[in-house]
Amino acid sequence: MSLFDEVIERRGTACLKYDFAVERGKPKDVLPFWVADMDFRTPPAVIEALVERSRHGIFGYTGIKEDYRKTVVAWLKNHHGYAPAQETLTVTPGVVFAICTAIRAFTEPGEAVLIMPPVYYPFANAVKDNLRRLVECPLVEKDGRYQMDLADMEQKIKKEQVKLLLLCSPHNPVGRVWRREELTQLAGLCLRHDVIVVADEIHADFLRPGHRHQVFAALSPEIAQNTVTCTSPSKTFNLAGLQVSNIFIENEKLRQKFRRTLRRTGYDEPNTLGLTAAKAAYDHGNEWLQELLAYLEENLRRTRVFLAKEMPLVRLIEPEGTYLLWLDFSRLGLTDEALNKLIVEQGRLWLDAGHIFGTGGENFQRINIACPWSVLEEGLKRLAQCLPNGK
C-alpha cells in the first residue's frame, strides 16, 4: 500500500476544496475534484521543519536570506536546467498575485494582454480586473493534441498592439508540455514585436515519462531579458495555503519596475512558515516527489482503463504534464448547462466546467486526479452512473 493511498479527512479545516460547496452554489455532499490542490500530506521533512519552527513560538517579520535563494535556484538548476542569478528572485504570496503585479507593472489601462484559451481561468480575470484589454488566441486541437496558432497570434499581436503575453507552461487545463521548438518560435515572435512574456511555470515538476519541461527564460539570453518566470512549491508539495511563490526576472529594469509595483500593493515581508516549508521541500522533497509522480501515473492509467470500459464516449485528452485531466463530453450531445447539472445534481460531483477556461472549453470538464485511488474511483463511478448514453 502506498502512502498516497491514505484517505485524509479534510473537511472541517476551512478547506476550499471540501468546505465551501454550499457557499459556491453546490450541494453540501458533493465529492470535489475541482481546485488544483492535492489530497496528500506534504513530505515528512516539510512537516518536521514547520513543527520545529513553530516550537520557537515567535512569528515576527521574516525576510529572504541567501540560503533560501540558493535552495530555490538549485532546485531549478537540478530539475530544469535553469540557473538564474540569486538577485533576480522576488518572493510573492502567489503566482496569480505575481501575474496581476506584472500586468500593472508592464502595461497601462486599456492596453492589450494576450492569452491562449482554454487556459487557467484566473488569467482572463487578471487581465479584465486590472482594466486591460483581453486578446484571445485559442489553442488548436487536432487528434487529441493542442498546438499554439502562431500565425493567428502574430496577426493579433500586430492588430491589437499586444504588450504582454501570459504563457501557461505546462498548460493547464489541456496538459501540454510545450516542446523547445514550439517555445522558440513563440519567443521569436514576442521578441520581434516587443511583447513581454509572463510564464506561469507552476506545474513544471509534474511531467509524465518522456517529457521534459523547458523553462521559457532559458531559451536564450535575449528571451531571458524579456520574461517573468513564475514558480512555486505550492503545487509540487501541496503548500498553496502557505502563500509563497518565487518569481525570477533577469532584466534589471523590468525587475525594478515589478518590485515598485509590488511595493504599491503594501506587500512586504513574506509568510514566515511559507518560507520554512518551501526551503524544506526543495532541500528534502525530491524522493517524495518521485513516489508521487509514480502514483499519479498509476492513477492516470487506471482512469484511462475505466473510461474506455465504462464511458467510451468520454474522450480523454492525453496529458503530458500536470495532475489535471481534460475530458471531452461532446459525443454525449448535451449542452454545457445540461452536462453540468447532471454531474452536480445527479453525480454529486464537483468538477471544473470547461467553459470557465474560455474559448474551446465548451463540453469539457477538468478533473483533478491528485487524490487516493479509492476516492478517484468513487468519483469516476458516480460520473459513469449519472451520464446518459455513456456507452
List strands and helices in order, with pairings.
Blueprint: H1 16-19, E1 31-32, H2 44-56, H3 66-80, E2 89-92, H4 95-106, E3 112-115, H5 122-129, E4 133-136, E5 140-142, E6 145-147, H6 150-160, E7 162-168, H7 180-192, E8 196-200, H8 221-224, E9 227-231, E10 245-249, H9 252-264, H10 272-284, H11 286-310, E11 315-317, E12 324-328, H12 336-346, E13 349-350, E14 352-353, E15 364-368, H13 373-386
Parallel strand pairs: 1-13, 3-4, 3-7, 7-8, 8-9
Antiparallel strand pairs: 2-10, 5-6, 9-10, 11-12, 12-15, 14-15
Helix pairs in contact: 2-10, 3-10, 4-5, 4-9, 11-13
Notable characteristics:
single chain; about 400 residues; alpha/beta; Aspartate Aminotransferase, domain 2; seven-stranded mixed beta sheet; four-stranded antiparallel beta sheet; 15 strands; globular
